[in-house]
Amino acid sequence: MRLVVFGANGPTGRQVTEQATAAGHTVTAVTRHPDAFPLGGPGLRIEAADVLDATAVERVVAGHDAVISVLGVPYGRAPVTVYSTGVTHVTRAMTRHGVRRLVCVTSTVLFDVPAPGEGVLFRKAVEPFFTHVVGRTVYEDMRRMEEIVRVSGLDWTVLRPAGLFDTSEVSDYRLAPHRLPGRFTARADLAHALVREAGSVEHVRTCLDVRTAEGTPRLLGVIRKEAFGR
After folding, report:
1. What is the DSSP string of 36-98?
2. Strands 155-161 and 184-186, how do they pair?
3. pLDDT at 121
4. Most exposed: 54, 90, 91, 221, by fewest CB within 10 Å?
5. Mean pLDDT by 10-residue block, N- to C-terminus, for the chain (230 residues)?
C-alpha cells in the first residue's frame, strides 16, 4: 500500500514508519523538520509539511491509498487545536483526492467508562488527575477530532491506547471495540495495530482499544514522565 503518515517524527510515528516500510509498504513520512527525521531507506519518502497548513496537507495526501495520523502534543494548560484542525485538513484533502482509508489515534479515556478491574484510587484519583487536570486540553481536542472523523464520510478507524511506553518488540497485544483491562500500551504494539488497520476493512467506523499485557512499566514512573517531564 501507499501510506502517508502524519506525526511521523514522534515516537509512535517513527515506529509506524519503520514497521510499515519493513512490511513492504511505500510510506510518505510527513514532518515539519525533515532534516531531523532519523529513518531512511527504500520505500520511504520524507515530506516537509505542517498539518495546520491545509495546502501542504492536500499536496502530500494526493496519490496515497490510506492515511495514518499519529499526531500528538504534550500536556499543558494552553488550549489545544492540533488534533481537530489537523484532522479537518486531512479529511478534506482525502475527500478531494478520493483517499478513503483513515486510521488515527486518541485515548482509551474517550470510552467514558471506568477502567475495568481498577481500584478506587486509580478510578477516583489517578485517572481523573490526568483527564481533567493535567491533560484536560489535550483530551478536549481529541474529542473534537473524533467527531470530525465520524462525520467525514470516510472509512475510518480510531485506535484508543492507554498510557504509552517504549519497547523494542511487538507483543501479543489485545484489540477490542470497548475499554480493556490494563493501564498501558506499548508504542510498538500501537504502531503494529495502526499499520494493520490501514490495510484492513475489518474495523471500519469503529473505535478500538489497544492494550499491552506483558512487560508493562510501573504506574509511578509513567506519572513522573508524562505529568512532570522526568
Report:
1. G-----TTEEEEE--TT-HHHHHHHHTT-SEEEE-------SS---HHHHHHHHHHHHHHHHT
2. unpaired
3. 87
4. 221
5. 97 97 98 94 96 98 98 92 98 98 97 92 88 94 98 98 94 97 96 98 98 85 57
Q: Is the dihedral of CA 38, 41, 43, 46 positive or negative?
A: positive
For residue 109, give the nearest of 138, 87, 86 by alpha carbon.
Answer: 138
Q: What is the DSSP letter of 216?
A: -
**Alpha-carbon gap, residue 100 to 66, rounded angstroms:** 7
Q: Are 65 and 2 in contact, with CB atoms under 8 Å apart?
A: yes
CA pair distance 36, 20, nearest whole angstrom:
20
Identify whether the C-beta of residue 29 lies closer than 8 Å to the C-beta of residue 5: yes
Count the helices and strands in the chain (H runs, E runs).
8, 10
DSSP, collapsed to helix, strand or coil, labels residue 135 as coil
Report pLDDT for 122: 87
pLDDT of residue 227: 53
* Length of the chain (residues): 230
Strand 155-161 vs strand 206-211: parallel, antiparallel, or unpaired? parallel
Residue with cell string 504494539: 189
- If you search the block for the grid coordinates 511505500, which residue do you land on? 26
